[in-house]
Amino acid sequence: MPARAELSPFGLLVTPAAGEDVSDLAPALLARWVGQHRLVVLRGFRAVSPDCLADCARAFGPLLRWEFGEVYDITGVDPVLFHWDGPFVEQTPSYLLFHCPAAPSAGWAMTFCDTTRLLASLSRAELRRWASVTVTYLGGYGDCVCTAPLVDIHPITGRRILRFQEPHDPGSFTIPLLLEFAGSPDAAALVADIRDRLYDPRFGITHRWQDGDFVLVDNHAVLHRRDALGAATPPPLHRVHIL
Length: 243
Ligand SMILES: [Fe+2]
Description:
With 243 residues, the protein is of the alpha+beta class. It contains five helices and 16 strands.
């Protein structure tokens, strides 16, 4: 049985028993852990190939297939602001599974924000105001248009979650993402307030990648961002989307 330790302010760190591989972990156990903690770091397991990563993830649930396949190589040349994955696809992935076979020697980090905690910090009046807001996203990596309520309901747990992608200033990002708000009289103040809370350490955890790390994330409850990384070969991070 692997060892477990709670992370702060949220998340679970799991390390293997002797000889245990990531594929030995029962999917039902992983589902319970990610349901309870929203983020699970598997550290100390043997690194796996991209194909094996997809097989491990498939045991957990069906995978979203993109035009490039099921496994995406994240090279991380550009910084990425807070977002959830798959806003433009028909079915939002429930989970993200990242694997870092070999971490960059200069270090690299990804930050996760537990939006259930963030929303719990709002007063009733603030929550009511946020819940009346709808955001339309234009552009971004899919160069699409999608509309989502700012406060949504988690399709599995039924808890309130924050759906938000930080805007990309066209002057600073090669791929701009513009936001239009309905239901908010002062969108600039609202964005500033959301950003303050997204970067509040009470709700977020920064994961510094180590060789072999796997990270399983609840993509509905948790938003994520990452720092920029210089060109890296081979790609330091692989990711699959689990529906
Ligand atoms: Fe992402």
